[in-house]
Amino acid sequence: MVQDLRAHPEVLYGAAIALGIVVLLTPAVGGMARLLGVVDEPDRRRLNRRPIPRLGGLAIFLGILVPALAFLDLTGEMRGIVIGAAVACVVGAVDDFRGLAPLPKLAGQVLAAAIPTAFGVWIDHFTFPFVGAVDLPAWLGIPLTVVWIVAVMNMVNFLDGMDGLAAGVCAIAGASFAVLALSLDKVDAAILSAVVAGACVGFLRHNFFPARIFMGDSGALVLGYTLATVSVAGLLKTASTVVLFLPLIVLAVPIIDTSFVVAKRMKHGQPVYTADRSHLHHRFVNIGFSQRRAALTMWAWCATLAAAALATRFVPFREGGHWHGWDTVAVALIAAAALASSVYIVYLLEIVKLANPRIRRREAESDAAERPSARKSA
Predict the structure, then answer these.
(1) Which of 166, 169, 158, 190 is nearest to 56 (CA)?
(2) Which of 116, 150, 222, 347 has the fewest CB atoms found within 10 Å of its own CB?
């Protein structure tokens, strides 16, 4: 890995430039957002207790764009990814300014996701365990890619409900994707992933609790879009069987959060796009965690999953078709730690109902507070 970085120092340069740009630009963007009135006011659904400007995603996008223009080969796939990121930023910024209805917002996300597919960024093949290489026709691979990109965009957007949470998770995911892509000799994907990580770390300077600015949809959609597209360009289209599952492991936290929230809303007959306080970070607050502690806990959870993904890639536990004892033990221990952290979170938050009446009682109180009209009609 060190040799790969020495051969491609632009991976680190891109991350450092992105970090510096976002650190310097974010206060100016926050001031502009206040002047324009693009501010999140406190309410019973949000966790902030004072008005906070959003639109921080503009600084994140510029932090990604500048090193991308400097270091990426923009004659092929990366051009499509950068253009799509600009469209995602515009869609998010419009939503931050005036609010978009769900269908126009989804249409804008689909448009952004479709752009890179026109430049060849779509899953045309992958390697599946026990099956081998599978070729996908364009009529199937392109829609699947668009669905994946739109899904990750919304997962990150759903996760962006607590100071520093989404930026920290995306920083971990970006760094993990950079290492994985570089190991697969996907240099452009590695650079872009590292740039995302650097931009997120820079944004945390202003967004970690107590946040002075939020990224808004302009940031969440850009980060989700970029992570999704680099996972396709840098990981999914490879001949490695195990790599197929690595993006799912690295992005497990937003996947679990979104799956839980959507399932709960469908169970109660609510539209999936309706905002509420059923996200995992809200549940942490409900059991007494501070925002800082909740964000750090979810970062640690994401980091253990990312470590498991990296161990699966780099520890040669089954090299040459033969199992290697100590390497297998090492991978098993890392996987066990990741599984244990996930089980702990599931138990702590009662994502599946186990035996924590305290959470049930607080959830009931929260649901009752969110439906005052229903109480009156009853």
Answers:
(1) 166
(2) 347
